[in-house]
Fold:
Amino acid sequence: MAVESTTSDKIIGYLPNEKPEFGKMILLGFQHVITMFPATVLAALLMGFPVNTVLAVTGFGTVVALTVSKLWLGFYIPLYYGSSFSYIAAVLAFTAGTFEFGGAAPPEVLSVVQVGFLATGLINIITGFLIRGVGGKQALDKVLPPVITGSVATTIGIGLGKAALDMSSGVCCGADGSGVWWTVAIITLTATILFSVYLQGKGFIGLLPILLGAIVGYIVAIPFGLVDFSVFGQTSLVTTPHLTFPTFNDQSLTIIFSVGIMAIATIPESTAHLYQISLYVDHLAVEQGKERYFLSRYVGANLVIDGLNDFINGLFGSTAGTNYGENNSLMVITRNYSGPVLMTAGVIAVLLGFIGPLKDAISSVPTAVSGGLAIYLFGVIGMQGIALMMSEKVNLFDPKQLAIGAIILIVGIGGNIGFPGGFLPIPLLQGVFPNGWPAIATAAVLGIVFNLIFRIFPAPERDHIDIGLDH
Structure:
């Protein structure tokens, strides 16, 4: 059980239940907002959700998640919740073509998609309670082993490749794909990569390569005439976020399947973030001579809280969320794991949702700039899937593992890029899937099914032979 205490004079830092002085708490909270801001805003723009609404609702969801963890467990699980990139491909199958970048899809479209976010919330909650009852991460890995979660993450990232290139060329917006769009996109991409590589470990500024790259791209786009300054001043100083509520119709089952199943990607991501932050929190506690928190014991509770956050997003018109690794990195760098600071950040995000000029500024960002950012970000999602399999030592010489990964990649990537909207033209269950079967979700389910077959009917184990490739 963690105890309330003040920060040690010798070892500077804040444990989850510790509360800095008011002024420090505001500054530290604002730093968290700056860290989450670029990814949360970009995800909202890419999926066609109103940025002001997403900022306000994700901030509120973060406050609720932290409050629940404190009331339930007696301490805060120090995580910040923003928009998840894992859902972009699934959401674009329904919102693509209904909005221009910088704007939002019609409310009647968003309200239908929100049903899928409610489903992700319920999946997380049910999974969390099951894990609390049967044994933590080891139980989770039996159903969702790294070869599935890693392959799904890779499929999501690579499957979005065409969307990134369409934005970079202007094809998505009816432009002619001229060299102007490509020039701005490539400069944005190059700047972002250079910032991410050469500013790493350089302090707080090293956490903002996406924001810095966007600024460079924005400045470059001005003389090319790609920045629309006419959008400024269109919104009043104070505005109210536009809330939409979920609507159930004949597409609901398709959306529940295609969007809800993407929880397969966020569940292991959330678990990894919890293990990471648990390690550093306990390290600081030991340094300060205080009681450790052992946050890694609460995998199930963490997923239940994640699910509650998704349910809030789906209920009020925001994107499905996830706890942010970039905010974890900020906490590790600053040695500040204070739950009250994260709640302050959530409140600041809510307030930002009411600032009208912020909406105008974001609307002015050229699509070519976002295309350059997307090439990098979507590629990183794909590479993270590969990194996950490497870190978990997935044996791709094992025909079972190889088969599961191969099915997921081909069905998911090929289906998402090769067919309109990413729907496979399978003439089965058309009452449930009138537009076809969503490719990435279908790929994920196929991976789960084959994994269960191999567990129920074990194949002969083969010894792994080291052929010296590491040398």
